[in-house]
Amino acid sequence: DQQVKQNSPSLSVQEGRISILNCDYTNSMFDYFLWYKKYPAEGPTFLISISSIKDKNEDGRFTVFLNKSAKHLSLHIVPSQPGDSAVYFCAASSWETSGSRLTFGEGTQLTVNP
Amino acid sequence: EPEVTQTPSHQVTQMGQEVILRCVPISNHLYFYWYRQILGQKVEFLVSFYNNEISEKSEIFDDQFSVERPDGSNFTLKIRSTKLEDSAMYFCASSGPSGVNQPQHFGDGTRLSIL
Q1: What is the pLDDT of residue A4?
Q2: Under a CB-based contact definition with an 8 Å cutoff, are residues A25 and A50 in contact?
Q3: DSSP string covering B32-51, please?
């Protein structure tokens, strides 16, 4: 299942700088997109979401951008903090599916260095 | 902040045995889900549940699997006659109350090990 893809398995940034995590999707029926953060031995924690009628959503240090024509979304974290070090998953759901199933990407391991 | 709780955190079971994974969703949520993540693979959708019935299931969710909301707070996943390939982290999630374009909130998972 390659409908949601995160091409970078890992990303390393310095504390205080911007982290940019990327995600691509192929299913044009996806209309709701989410980012989750996951620490080891914990479940995914919801961070931020965006519906397809918007191209940007901001919540504190986290901003999600959606480019529907490119089928691409990104998560910006500014400023990055060492506590942000985790695996980040993007996920998407489609109006087609009655059950609102989420389709996940592979995840990107973010490391923020002090 | 309300959270989804899952028990047990780790379950070890002999192949062929039945296992029940338990979840307590967030109290005012109406939509419930199970996902799994096999080691090194993506998080995969198994099933969604609303109004006491399955609303969607994946191709993974075959006759070996069943879900139930036995009372007003618990949501369970039963796996009959477990196989080695059922070894995975199983995550429960809930959302609501509207269900549409609402974030799903996940528990910390049950690690299922089939021997």
Answers
A1: 97
A2: no
A3: EEEEEE-TTS-EEEEEEEET
Residues in chain B closer than 8 A to A104 (CB atoms): 42-44
Interchain CB contact of B56 with A (< 8 Å): yes
Which of B6, B48, B108 has its CB closest to that of A101?
A: B48
* Number of residues assigned to chain A: 114
pLDDT for res A77: 98
Distance between CA atoms of residues B31 and B41, nearest Å:
25
Q: Could you give the C-alpha distances from B27 to A45, B2, B66, in angstroms and in order? A: 18, 8, 22
Q: Does the CB of B33 have a partner CB in chain A at under 8 Å?
A: yes
**B109/A contact by beta carbon, under 8 A:** yes
**Residues B41-57 pLDDT 10s:** 999 999 999 989 999 99
Q: At residue B2, does pLDDT exceed 90?
A: no
> DSSP string covering A31-90, please?
EEEEEEEE-TTS--EEEEEEETT-SEEEETTEEEEEETTTTEEEEEESS--GGG-EEEEE
> Are B56 and A98 inside 8 Å of each other by CB?
yes
Residues of chain A with pLDDT under 50: none
Closest CA relative to residue A102, chosen from A89, A83, A111? A89
Torsional sign, CA B50, B56, B61, B64: positive
CB contact, 8 Å: B31 with chain A?
yes
B63-76 pLDDT tens trace = 999 999 988 789 99
Tokens of A95: 């109006």
